[in-house]
């Protein structure tokens, strides 16, 4: 609650579910959610693992869930989105993600695609 009251900005992926679980209200103005940043209307939401693999070259959460790894990946994805928006190519980047996901049936790595 302290961080919310101090006006901290929370960056993550699928944060509304996290806040719901811990019964914490965070004003929308204090939330940056990569689940929504990397989403096209009327399309599926993209998993953090898929985005991290595609954009960061990082295969995460292979064995256990690691919230620190999630937070780091979400922050890096946020920075990547801001950089792409600044360069004017975010929509092209997002289209490429959806095209690749559709082509691979949203599977990550060779093992999952077999």
TrEMBL record:
Chain ranges of the Exonuclease domain: 3-78
GO biological process, one term: nuclear-transcribed mRNA poly(A) tail shortening
Name of the molecule in the record: Exonuclease domain-containing protein
Organism: Eucampia antarctica
A cellular-component GO term for this protein: P-body
A GO MF label: poly(A)-specific ribonuclease activity
């Amino acid at each position: 609650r302290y961080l919310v009251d101090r006006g901290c900005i929370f960056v993550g992926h699928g944060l509304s579910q996290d806040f719901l679980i811990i019964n914490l209200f965070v004003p929308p103005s204090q939330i940056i959610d990569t689940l929504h940043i990397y989403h096209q209307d009327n399309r599926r939401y993209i998993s953090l693992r898929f985005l991290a693999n595609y954009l960061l070259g990082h295969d995460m959460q292979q064995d256990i869930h690691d919230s620190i790894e999630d937070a780091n990946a979400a922050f890096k994805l946020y920075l990547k989105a801001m950089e792409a928006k600044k360069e004017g190519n975010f929509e092209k980047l997002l289209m490429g993600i959806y095209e690749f996901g559709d082509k691979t049936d949203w599977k990550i790595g060779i093992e999952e695609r077999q």
